[in-house]
Task: inverse folding
C-alpha cells in the first residue's frame, strides 16, 4: 500500500522547487517524516534544510506523527512575519 | 477576541475601538511598519505571504493564550499580506486591560509569539539587487510547535 499526497511549499522553499505544491508517494502507513524524506529527494530539494518544520492539517507536527490520506501537509520555512 | 490575515490596509483606529470597554484602564496599540533598511541594505518595498488558514489558527491561539494569561485582557490582532510600501503597517495589535502593566505585557506576548510561530513570510525588494525572502529567527526555546 502507498500514500500519495500533496505537500504545500512556501516562500524560499517554493522557489527552490519551482512549485507551490509537490506530490509524493510513500509506503503506507506513513509518518510526516516519511513524506518529508520523499520531498527532500526531489530535484532542487538539496537546497532545503534537512529538518524543516512540518505542519499537518494546519498545525505544527513532529516527523514521527502519522499521516493519513487527505491530510494537508506543508513544509514551513523560518517564519518572518511582524 | 479576534485575529485575522487581511490583504488591505489595517485600520488601527478600528482595532482600538473593538477592544474598548468600560473595564479597560489601559489600551496598548502596537503597530509594526515597513522599514527602509534591512541588515544594512536599502529596502524599497516588501511583500508578505502567508499560509493563511494556518496563520489564522496560530494567531487565534496566541491571542487566546494571552487572554488566558492576563485575565481580563481584550486583544485584537491583524496581519496584512500582499505588497506593502515603506511606512505601511504590516501588523497591528490592540490590547486592552484594566491595568497598564498587563496591557503592555499581553501586547508584547502577542507580537513576540506571532513572530516566532505564525506562518507568514516577507520578501524584501532592495534598491539594488534581486529580491530575497527573509529567514526569520529560530524558534525560541519553550515555544511549542
Result:
Amino acid at each position: 500500500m502507498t500514500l500519495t499526497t500533496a505537500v504545500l511549499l512556501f516562500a524560499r522553499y517554493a522557489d527552490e522547487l519551482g512549485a507551490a505544491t509537490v506530490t509524493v508517494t510513500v509506503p503506507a502507513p506513513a509518518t510526516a517524516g516519511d513524506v518529508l524524506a520523499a520531498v527532500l529527494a526531489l530535484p532542487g530539494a538539496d537546497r532545503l534544510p534537512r529538518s524543516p518544520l512540518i505542519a499537518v492539517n494546519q498545525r505544527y507536527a513532529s516527523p514521527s506523527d502519522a499521516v493519513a490520506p487527505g491530510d494537508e501537509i506543508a513544509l514551513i520555512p523560518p517564519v518572518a512575519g511582524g | 477576541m479576534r485575529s485575522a490575515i487581511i490583504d488591505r490596509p489595517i485600520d488601527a483606529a478600528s482595532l482600538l475601538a473593538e477592544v474598548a470597554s468600560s473595564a479597560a484602564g489601559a489600551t496598548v496599540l502596537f503597530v509594526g511598519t515597513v522599514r527602509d533598511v534591512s541588515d544594512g541594505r536599502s529596502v524599497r518595498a516588501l511583500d508578505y505571504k502567508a499560509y493563511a488558514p494556518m496563520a489564522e489558527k496560530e494567531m487565534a491561539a496566541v491571542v487566546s493564550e494571552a487572554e488566558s494569561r492576563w485575565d481580563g485582557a481584550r486583544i485584537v490582532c491583524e496581519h496584512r499580506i500582499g505588497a506593502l510600501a515603506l511606512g505601511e503597517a504590516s501588523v497591528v495589535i490592540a490590547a486592552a486591560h484594566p491595568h497598564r502593566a498587563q496591557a503592555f505585557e499581553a501586547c508584547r506576548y502577542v507580537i513576540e509569539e506571532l513572530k516566532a510561530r505564525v506562518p507568514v513570510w516577507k520578501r524584501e525588494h532592495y534598491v539594488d539587487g534581486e529580491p530575497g525572502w527573509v529567514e526569520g529567527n529560530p524558534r525560541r526555546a519553550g515555544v511549542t510547535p
